[in-house]
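Dear colleague,

As promised, here are the two records you asked about, laid out in our usual form so they can be pasted straight into your sheet.

NAME FIELD: protein one
SEQUENCE, THEN STRUCTURE:
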Amino acid sequence: MESITLLCGKAITEARTDEGIGAAVFEGIFEAHYKRVYNFCAYRINNHHDTEDLVSMVFEKVIAKYSTYRPSGVPLEAWIITIAKNVVNDYFRHKKKRAYIPLDFVNGAALSVSESQPEEILMIRESNAALMRALNALTEKERTIIAMKFAASLKNVDIASIMSLGESNVGAIIHRSLKKMRRVLEGEES
């Protein structure tokens, strides 16, 4: 069966087999979506090593389930993030722990900048700690939607499709979540 897949705005004709996906198409999908999948998983589970494992599992499922993907349904990116969301949910079910973002995940970015002065690193760590407290004030659903919006850079319409919500509802949840985070952050400044 022949189908057309859009990757980074280019139409690629591929031969789909019952086994799944061709290597060239998978490579294009992987390159186009790896960063968003990684960011989404990292934001949700907060552990670099586990994130790498989960991203591998996501793309294994993409390979295994590609024959079930229908371009007339949701966009490919939303389909892949849905798989990532399910993999992360399974991870939490098995770990039985609440999601939060440890400071070593966020602070890693500050420590990797070689020109940063110790004072700058300390200020970044303090800001990140406050941000983590604000994120922990959100519900699981709110954190997931915020992760999809800002870590995976998804549009509200794609988030709505993944979460089975209305697009305006997603916008309202994002607005309320950011407002809640702002109140937490402003409460700390007082």
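NAME FIELD: protein two
SEQUENCE, THEN STRUCTURE:
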Amino acid sequence: MAEQAGTTHEDTGAGRGAEFESEVTRLKLKGANAEPERRLVLLGAVLMLVGVVLAIAGWISSNGTNNSLNQNTDLTMAVAGLAVTVVGAIIWLRHSLSRYGRYWLARCIYEQRQQTDRIVEAVRRGAGQSLAGSPDNSGTPDVANALEKSTVESR
């Protein structure tokens, strides 16, 4: 982006990015390290796998015996395996979605700031054109007409 005479460094996209980074560092967030979250995602996946293995082993073991006490014990192990699978899925899902949610939110903020920069630039361009073409030269730009002109030009 070429800087114009009336714009400052903060008006450009690079300035907005630097401003965003400085705001985040001022907040002193501890979320920069994603290692605990990665561990919890991995833990959830391992728990799901272990739970499925327990459930299958308990089911197979309960079918291999005629003793009802052993069958009950094995079926209890199978149900416990299913519970471990559900807990692992919840842990995995929660941390996977929170990670994606942060990415999505940062992406939305970035895109909204870029869109705002484009709108401001279009209004400035249009306001400059309407000032030059205004018959009374009152110095007040007609922002609505300028935005409409820049929208029509971009199509």
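A couple of things worth noting about protein two: The chain has a mean pLDDT of 77. The chain has one domain: 32-154.

Best,
R.
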